[in-house]
Amino acid sequence: MKLLSSKNVNPLLPYNFLVCATLYSLGMNYNYLQWSRARYARGLNLEEAYSRGHKKHLLNVQYRMHPSISSFPNREFYDNKVLDAPNVKQRTYEKRFLQGNMYGSYSFINVTNGIEDLDSKHSTKNMVEVAVVAEIVSNLFKDSVASKQKVRVGCISPYKAQVFALQEKLGKTYDIDGNSDFSVSVRSIDGFQGGEEDLIIISTVRCNRRGSVGFLSNCQRTNVVLTRARHGLWILGNGATLMNSGTVWEKLVLDAKARGCFYNANDDNNLAQAVVGALVELNQLDTLLKIDSPLFSDMRWKVRFGDDFVRSMTTMKNINTCKEVFSLLIKLSSGWREHDHQMDNVLDMNGTCSQLLDVYNVNGFLNLIWSVDIVREYSKYTQVLKVWDVLSLTEIPKLAKRVDTIFVDYEVEKINRCKCKKLKGAQEDKKKK
Ligand SMILES: *[C@@H]1O[C@H](CO)[C@@H](O)[C@H](O)[C@H]1NC(C)=O
Ligand SMILES: *[C@@H]1O[C@H](CO)[C@@H](O)[C@H](O)[C@H]1NC(C)=O
């Protein structure tokens, strides 16, 4: 679909430029235009200007977006006919807002564990994406304070319910009207028409197997939303849903993959923690606890939950403790280990247990009991992180005895493999630091 038809506004071009170019093509004198540009810029309805039947060989130059941001909309909506102005191609136009490849000028961030939630007015929201946006904004804020850099962030979602949820979450913490060094504005696509920000975070919300994306598929809106950012554009969405949508969003995901701008939210520990927090709050423990929990699928260590652990978690009353447990698990599954971890003074265990089990404190009172285990998958043996239970110290010996009866059946070879990988993980972690 081409958006250069006369009916459509061209949201890519700066307002003044557009008015100017439009009138130029209507055959007006250029000097006159320079002079009256400001006046026109205020009053003229672009849609109207376009529909007056003028020709469309506009000289299309865009001055707003870093080239990595303009690349996709340019190809998709403008036949690659829009040129990047020299100013956006300068090195200084590329700004770093956060450390990590995921936070470059342009990226798609795959948030897979979201949950679509229809509100009473039939608008959709996704609290997991809200949590991810909030986490990113919180990190931006910390960075902005530390570096004393002015940052203006815009959060956009096509769905009113999501905009509202984001405003509720962010409005309490940050300046929303934009007067301080760090400001966040949260708006719908329509609310952003004509606007721009240094950094834009888009929450696409939809997350379902059908690939149903509703009015997200509207090309003109998509064009608007993708062309608001100056230095950074981070698009959050469920990669699979968008890929199945058969819309321009499918192309967007493919394009991001092809350009190496596609990232999984769970690859960033902070974002993974935010996802878990949201899922716990949404009472989605089942999702978190199922075998091959999607949360841990991309992690360095696969995680397997023991029945006792699942039981303890599902009966856990305190939401914060629950979050802390998963938080610790995410760290463990990404390879983090406590240094100089001393088991001996934590508890007095005999048998194989003492060699294999590890006890990590969760919150002072509770402890996570885990070990490395070997599972058979597709006729291959793989090391996994087995989580036995979460218990107070006094309850641990009982578990240890039970687990020992399981370890008794392990051959020496298998036990050695468990120990071996455990050490390797710890070493790898040290190297990283
Ligand atoms: C998004 O991430 C999930 C799990 O992390 C993965 O299974 C899925 O393939 C990813 N989506 C795409 C489009 O790559
Ligand atoms: C471990 O073994 C010692 C001596 O063999 C015994 O005194 C102690 O009670 C055992 N501890 C546990 C937790 O079974």
3D architecture notes:
The chain is an alpha/beta fold. It has helices at 15-25, 30-43, 46-50, 67-78, 86-89, 127-147, 160-171, 189-192, 219-226, 239-243, 248-258, 269-281, 285-289, 307-314, 319-333, 353-356, 396-407, 412-432, and strands spanning 61-62, 83-84, 106-110, 117-118, 124-125, 151-157, 182-188, 197-203, 229-237, 262-264, 303-305, 358-361, 366-377, 380-392. The strands form four sheets. Strands 7-6-8-9-3-10 form a six-stranded parallel beta sheet. β6, α7 and β7 (182-188) form a beta-alpha-beta unit. The chain is elongated, with a radius of gyration of 26 Å. It folds into three domains: 1-59, no CATH class; 91-269, P-loop containing nucleotide triphosphate hydrolases (Rossmann fold), CATH 3.40.50; 283-432, no CATH class. 37% of the residues are buried. The protein binds 2-acetamido-2-deoxy-beta-D-glucopyranose (2 copies). The site of one 2-acetamido-2-deoxy-beta-D-glucopyranose (NAG) has 4 residues, from loops.
